[in-house]
Amino acid sequence: MKNSCIIIGAGLSGLTAAHELLKNNWEVTILDKGRGVGGRMATRRAGEARFDHGAQYFSTKTPDFKAFTQNFLQASIAKEWHLEEGDKSFSHPRVIGINGMSSIPKFLAEGLNIRTNEKAIGISETENGCKVITETGNSYEANAIICTVPAPQAIELLQKSEISLAEISILENIQYQPCIAVMASLNAPTNIPSPGGISLENSNISWIADNFQKGISPVFSVTIHANPAFSLAHFDDDLNEVGKQLLSEVSYLISAESVESLQVHRWRYSLASERHTDNFLVSASTKFPLIFAGDGFGIGSIEGAFISGKSAAQNLLKI
Ligand SMILES: Cc1cc2nc3c(=O)[nH]c(=O)nc-3n(C[C@H](O)[C@H](O)[C@H](O)COP(=O)(O)OP(=O)(O)OC[C@H]3O[C@@H](n4cnc5c(N)ncnc54)[C@H](O)[C@@H]3O)c2cc1C
């Protein structure tokens, strides 16, 4: 029987793992609970306005990830975003998707066997391997599973499954920061200095991006990220009110009169603040290969998700 794997999660780590297995002639099925692919590399529209409301950019530190990124740069899917020289925190180029961050996972997803709107709700052992049951009632069988969902969601999935994980404490120790993201479309430019991205300190806001200056939105629009403490404290509040409060705190950059529409998104899991040092985790409790990966492992963020997904798949090839 051909080697087969179910990958849970079509974010960067899951998509990277899929490509690694496909290169080695594995049969791969990717399941994602979302309507589209990309997970936290997310871009949203409101009318003509476009917003990156999850990840904003990524840097490339390792040679392997630099080489991987070249594929997107050469295919004009991504471009470098040079935040101004002299700004200490942004002294080297960042990479962004040309039409928003979701362009990158969408490009990677082309030709893959991906089932969206399929939330995995149970994993079990079968005679020949393993099975994943989804909320829609579908069932997928394979020889192995790579689970790339944020650790708290992996724990939730395990709790509903007919298997136990001896290494559960490793997943329990992985922690994520929450983030409230505000997206406003505007009828006038902002006062955000070129090239349109600033980090704030001593503020409830950690980051503001001018999506028009960034080049991803054809009309004026901004994304505001509240800092983790503010996001946690206001996570369950009326989101529209929270959005208005955050906008009023930066009225010197974005005039209230210019705001045409407002959307607010709650990310329960944004950046992984406490990570497992290894790039992935292999379950020792199951007869079939079950590997956990994602940005909760290794160096974190987008580059960490890539490294984790790739190394999880390479490990599976060796089992
Ligand atoms: C607000 C915000 C700002 C950020 N800023 C940056 C930044 O500027 N730079 C940077 O490098 N990183 C940033 N990040 C982090 C970055 O987005 C992540 O590190 C990276 O995208 C994680 O990829 P992943 O594949 O590990 O996980 P994800 O992208 O979360 O993918 C996991 C996928 O699993 C799916 N899923 C979950 N549960 C199930 C289930 N039961 N069944 C099926 N599917 C399921 C989800 O729908 C999701 O698509 C930011 C994140 C957020 C939210």
TrEMBL record:
<dbReference type="InterPro" id="IPR002937">
    <property type="entry name" value="Amino_oxidase"/>
</dbReference>
<dbReference type="GO" id="GO:0016491">
    <property type="term" value="F:oxidoreductase activity"/>
</dbReference>
<dbReference type="InterPro" id="IPR036188">
    <property type="entry name" value="FAD/NAD-bd_sf"/>
</dbReference>
<protein>
    <recommendedName>
        <fullName>Amine oxidase domain-containing protein</fullName>
    </recommendedName>
</protein>
<feature type="domain" description="Amine oxidase">
    <location>
        <begin position="83"/>
        <end position="317"/>
    </location>
</feature>
<dbReference type="Pfam" id="PF01593">
    <property type="entry name" value="Amino_oxidase"/>
</dbReference>
<dbReference type="Pfam" id="PF13450">
    <property type="entry name" value="NAD_binding_8"/>
</dbReference>
